[in-house]
Amino acid sequence: MGADSANRPRLRAPLRLKRGRDFARLRQQGQRRACGCILANWQPLKPDSVSRLGVIASRKVGGAVVRNRARRLLREVFRVHQHELARPVDMVLVARASMAGKQFATVEKDFLTTLQRARLLKGSIG
């Protein structure tokens, strides 16, 4: 942890999906896109809502340390870019097995590519 980590805004509890029914709803009713080491499920929300995130990292990704790092990377990349979303969404990011050993920049690139292809970024056509 660096000295500036205490000053960085975190992805607080109200912005996280925690209930199994929310994950199931997004899987059944939401849209899906995969790119690189990330699979994203999302569902648009009302314009006055706030985007929320859920993260999944299965044992296929690796041991506990690797899975926890994957979860942290996914939460951080969402936190950094959440204000670039064209509209509020509930989103579940799934770490794929290829995420093991990836650096932040690689995960960020895959995340932004996924959002661009899904037309979820502010500059996207759609």
Please explain how this structure is put together.
The protein has 126 residues and is of the alpha+beta class. The chain has a domain at 35-117: Ribosomal Protein S5, domain 2 (2-Layer Sandwich), CATH 3.30.230.10. 33% of the residues lie in helices and 20% in strands. The chain has three helices and four strands. It has helices at residues 20-29, 64-81, 104-117; strands at residues 31-35, 38-44, 52-57, 89-95. The protein has a four-stranded mixed beta sheet with strand order 1-2-4-3, with helices on both faces. Helix 2 (64-81) crosses helix 3. The N and C termini lie far apart (40 Å). The model has no long low-confidence stretch (mean pLDDT 88).
Q: How would you concisely characterize the structure shown here?
A:
By secondary structure, the protein is an alpha+beta fold.
Question: What key attributes describe this structure?
Answer:
Ribosomal Protein S5, domain 2, globular, 33% helix, four-stranded mixed sheet, 126 residues, alpha+beta, 3 helices
